[in-house]
Amino acid sequence: GTAGTGVRIGDGVIPGGVDLSVSLEGHYANKFDQSIQQGTGWDLPAEPNTVVVYTLMWREIWQPGYVDVRLADQRIVRVNVRYRTGIQSEIVGKQQQSCGAGQQTSQPIATPRTTLSPSVSSQTNGPFREHKPTPIIGTGVLAQGTYSNGMAPFDETEILQHLNIQRIRLEENPDGCTIAIFNANKIWFGSSVRTGLTINGATVGTINGPTGKHGYVFDVHINAGDRVCVTYFEPSGFHIFFGPDLYYHYDSYCYRGHCQ
Question: How far apart are CA 6 and CA 195, in angstroms?
């Protein structure tokens, strides 16, 4: 099957009486929770001779998605899933008491919000293969990109550990548009025809011809919440990927047999 994040998860059969959505959500939950826990930390200062009690507030961020499961008879069943992609946290209160003074002050404080969420990270891991510049193939931000041989030796098990990526394809986005959930400075763009790219309604570049199955990586700045669209596409489709784990997918695309 194919996960909504663009990751293949292998063939499988739905067991009788089993809620597959729960099983799949549990499968991905550990991967996301590990990445969230790695970024959790606080700086809670206290002046000398004082006792300080902080009040913290946490909000979980949940992302809807789907998984396409290929059954033994080759039918494909789409299963809706939800998974936690991050935590937003902030200090909402502070109580400070001087040691031995018997006096205590309680006050709300305005503290910058700490966001612990991989869904808005713009840091990109990789690349993992040598990248070469393309010829001039388009205009604007798509005038020139880079490409690799796509043979980084990451198999499907490794890829499942790097799911911080968003995909735009004709299959899931028939109007060619989506709302970004990541900040990004790179996109992986592939198309079979002349194709344009718009961000928040403004055209930022075009590709003047087919890119091949592997596609190219371009320097494109996207903010979480931006509306990202492609135009001029044909029924043969297109794909755009972006997010911190982009190079795990791009640089192993051919290694995993997708360029054949």
Answer: 21
**Residue 93 CB contacts under 8 Å (≥ 6 apart), including other chains:** 54, 55, 106, 107, 108, 109
**Structure-block tokens of residue 216:** 């190219």
Look at residues 190, 260, 165, 181 and name the one whose alpha carbon lies nearest to residue 228. Answer: 181
Q: Which of 113, 152, 138, 112 is nearest to 230 (CA)?
A: 138
Kind and range of the H or E run holding 234? none
- Least Cα distance to 5 among 212, 172, 218 occurs for 172
| Contacts for 138 with CB less than 8 Å, ≥ 6 apart | 144, 205, 206, 207, 208
DSSP 4-29: TTS-B-------TT--HHHHHHHHHH
247/127 Cα distance (integer angstroms): 5
Q: Look at the pTM and tell me if it is higher than 0.90.
A: no
The predicted-structure confidence for 210-252, as pLDDT tens digits, reads as follows 898 899 999 999 998 899 999 877 777 788 999 999 999 999 9
Contact present, 206 and 138 (Cβ < 8 Å): yes
